Amino acid sequence: MTPIIDIPWTHLSFAVIFIVILLGVSLYESLKLERTILLGTFRATVQLILVGFVIQKVFEIQSWPMILVILVVMVFTASQTLIKRLKKPVRGTYTYALIAVSGASLLSVYISSQLIIGVNPWYEARYLIPLGGMIIANGMNGATLAGERYRSELSLRVAEIEMLLSLGFDSRKASLKARQQAITAALLPSLNNMMVLGIVHLPGMMTGQIIAGADPVTAVKYQLVIILSISGTVALTSWIFLSLLDRRYFTPHHQFRYDLIQ
Fold first, then answer.
1. Domain that holds residue 57
2. Same domain, 30 and 56
3. How many structural domains compose the chain?
4. How far apart are alpha carbons 161 and 184 in whole angstroms?
5. Which residue in 254, 242, 252, 244 sits closest to 171, CA to CA?
6. Best-predicted range by mean pLDDT among 27-41, 53-67, 152-166, 246-260?
7. Element of type H or E holding 2
8. Do residue 116 and residue 44 come from a single domain?
9. Are residues 21 and 126 in the same domain?
10. At 88, phi and psi to the nearest 5?
């Protein structure tokens, strides 16, 4: 098996070409994303380099308290990022995000690592950290899409919701259509990936394992675990988040809170 090709730092610098393309499109179309692009590039570079050194040490130490701390930090950071991406978060949204992201993601990590892969010991860092990172990040993205779409759907369906409430429906039934559209929007990226998986899209984990020299069939098995766990996590995170968020947009007496969507 040919050894993994290491990328010299001088060669890595050519990746700046992609940043130039990003900036060019932003400037040409007046997207005003130049600051975000530059800041995102800087943060991604610094964070990944630091994480690389940290993970290397974690792999050497193999301490379960440290693994748990890393997973908890991931969950809290993902919840905070979720809130920042929502245009107009209502009071209590951070708590809801924390419950949704932690509950769905940790359940998915447990099912994937213990019931399916059978990681032994359970705190094996080279399995838990990559699995946790991918699952938590995708759950966060799904909940963000769901939360933003839910608020948008509520604002478009004011008359419909009011009519249902006046007919005696409770708030959950009155907001059902909005919730359905929001969860569907959150799931679409995952479902689209599943449709073209292996034909158009060769996912990162599978590609990385193949480059590292793993048997392609083994890489496929791991990728199936990841893609299915991500889809399940997105669905569960979005559903929990919207179920909790639904309480904020309606009073205990099932009255619509117009002030929160204006």
1. 1-61
2. yes
3. 2
4. 19
5. 254
6. 27-41
7. none
8. no
9. no
10. -135, 75
